[in-house]
Amino acid sequence: MQSQPPPWAASGAVTPAPTGLAAAIRPKAIDPQRAQARAALRARLQRLTANGRHATLAEASSVLGELEKLDGSHLSGINIAAVRKNLEQVGELQRVARELQAESQRPGGGDKQKIQDLLARLKEIEAGMQFNLTAAAPAPVTQK
Questions:
Q1: How far apart are CA 144 and CA 142, in angstroms?
Q2: Residue 74: strand, helix, or coil
C-alpha cells in the first residue's frame, strides 16, 4: 500500500488556517501603521521621562489616551480607562489639597467650616478612585 503525502505537502496546496486554540495564540500580523504609532508613543514617553523628569498628569493622561486609541481600553491586563480616570482624580486631589493648605495657613487657622468642607471633598474624591486597575478576566472557554 502506497502512502500519499499529507495534503499540505502537495504542490500548490494552501496551508489550512489554524482553528481553536492555535488560532487564538498564533502571532497576529503586525500593522505597520500601528507599529509606527506605538514607536512614536514610546519615543514621546521616553522624552517625557528623560533625565529623571516626571511627566505631568496631563502629559501622562495624553499618552494613555493615545495608547487607548491604539490598543483599546484594556492592555496587558490593565484597565487604561480606569488609570486615566484615577489621574483626573489625582489632579483634583492635588488642587483641593493646595486649597486646604492655603486655608489652614491663614491667620487663626482659617475658616473651620471651609476646612471641614475641603476634607470632606478629599474623602469624596478618594472614594471615587478605582484601586483595582486590572481588566476583567475574559469569559472562560467552554469545551464542546
A1: 7
A2: strand
Residue 79: its H or E element: strand 78-79
Cβ distance 134 to 75 under 8 Å?
no
- Beta bridge mates, 75: 78
pLDDT tens string 61-101: 998 888 888 888 787 788 888 889 999 999 999 999 999 99
Its pTM stands at 0.63
Mean pLDDT, rounded, for 15-20? 58
- Neighbouring-strand partners of residue 79: 74
CA angle (119, 89, 87) in 5-degree steps = 145
Residue 136 has pLDDT above 80, yes or no: no
Assigned C-alpha cell, 13? 496546496
CA 74 – CA 65 distance, rounded (Å): 12
How many residues are there in the chain? 144
Contact 72, 64 (CB under 8 A): no
| Structure letter (DSSP) for residue 107 | G
Q: Report pLDDT for 132.
A: 84
Cα–Cα distance measured from residue 99 to residue 106, given in angstroms and rounded to the nearest whole number: 11
